[in-house]
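Hi support team,

I've been running sequence recovery on a batch of backbones for a student project. Most finish fine, but this one hangs at about 90% for roughly twenty minutes before it completes. I'm not sure whether the input is malformed or the queue is just slow. I've pasted the structure tokens below so you can try to reproduce it. Let me know if you need the job ID as well.

Thanks,
M.K.
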């Protein structure tokens, strides 16, 4: 079988990919139908619950949309949420689930996030290189906390004793492909007949196709690392040694049309198995701006509702007021 790293095909002059290591995992679901990744970045196999149908509080028309995994998505597009992040509240029947269950979300970053990002970089202007250095030096935890605060992460809350309790967030969703994202929930009964969950995102930053609960799951999985029979780039050059291990020896992809074609061997034909391509590396944005940064914009984009405001106003007006778009 062949695996082409299409996600690494980038527009000329916009990004450079530095690929350090690539690998392929074969995961046996142990008879479960679905495979996902939990908030601790561990694989979990699970079955969907037949009774796991959420009723969306104040948005009942979305209940059918989110109860089916069919490509019809909700993208947190409530334009009236101006003093807070976009959010939806889901309600489940508590008697259907055990105390230790998973919240299952099939979701991803939206394509729109790239428009918001490009608009932001343009307003950073010739301070772009300093901005990149500042982000590179920031701790991962500081970066994640800012993403939670601004709704770049998908945040999960559970209502306990009539108060919203923060459970966790899904960070760094990566490529724009749909993923099964799981969040552990402690459903200790507080006397309420319902389980209430709130999902929070900045305006149109996330898309979700399905939301449900399951207590039918296992993380005791059989995971096998497969070998690549070959790894060749667009020029038919062997790059297998460059991607074999994490060693700071990079396969560089700096133009549109560059790719790595991988051929794996030893793949099982057994049912209820999944193949997961994983890797490590980084990428650089390539931008050269001559205009100065827009200081009002930079100040606002770093505020709690900065991403929310910019995304909403940009979507409706294609410009930010009172912030001036710099051509």
């Amino acid at each position: 079988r062949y695996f082409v790293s299409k996600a690494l095909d980038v527009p000329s002059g916009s990004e450079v990919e530095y690929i350090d290591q690539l690998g392929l995992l074969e995961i046996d679901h142990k008879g479960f139908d679905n495979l996902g990744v939990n908030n601790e970045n561990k694989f979990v196999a699970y079955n969907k619950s037949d009774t796991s149908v959420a009723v969306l509080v104040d948005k009942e028309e979305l209940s059918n949309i989110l109860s089916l995994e069919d490509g019809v998505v909700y993208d947190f597009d409530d334009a009236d949420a101006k003093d807070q992040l976009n959010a939806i509240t889901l309600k489940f029947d508590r008697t259907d689930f055990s105390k230790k269950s998973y919240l299952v979300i099939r979701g991803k970053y939206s394509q729109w996030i790239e428009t918001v990002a490009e608009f932001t970089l343009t307003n950073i202007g010739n301070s772009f290189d300093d901005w990149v250095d500042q982000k590179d030096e920031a701790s991962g935890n500081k970066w994640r906390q800012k993403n939670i605060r601004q709704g770049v992460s998908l945040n999960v809350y559970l209502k306990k004793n009539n108060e919203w309790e923060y459970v966790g967030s899904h960070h760094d969703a990566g490529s724009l492909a749909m993923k099964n994202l799981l969040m552990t929930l402690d459903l200790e009964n507080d006397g309420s007949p319902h389980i209430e969950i709130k999902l929070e995102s900045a305006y149109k930053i996330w898309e979700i196709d399905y939301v449900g609960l399951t207590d039918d799951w296992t993380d005791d999985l059989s995971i096998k690392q497969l070998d690549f029979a070959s790894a060749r780039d667009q020029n038919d050059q062997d790059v297998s040694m460059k991607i074999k291990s994490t060693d700071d020896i990079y396969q560089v992809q700096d133009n549109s049309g560059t790719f790595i074609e991988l051929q794996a061997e030893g793949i099982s034909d057994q049912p209820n198995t999944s193949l997961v391509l994983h890797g490590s590396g980084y990428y650089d944005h390539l931008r050269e701006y001559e205009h100065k940064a827009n200081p009002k914009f930079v100040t606002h984009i770093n505020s709690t509702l900065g991403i929310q405001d910019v995304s909403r106003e940009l979507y409706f007006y294609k410009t930010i007021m009172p912030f001036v778009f710099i051509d």
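--
Follow-up from support: It reproduced on our side and the slowdown came from queue contention, not your input. The first strand starts at residue 2 and ends at 4. No action needed from you.
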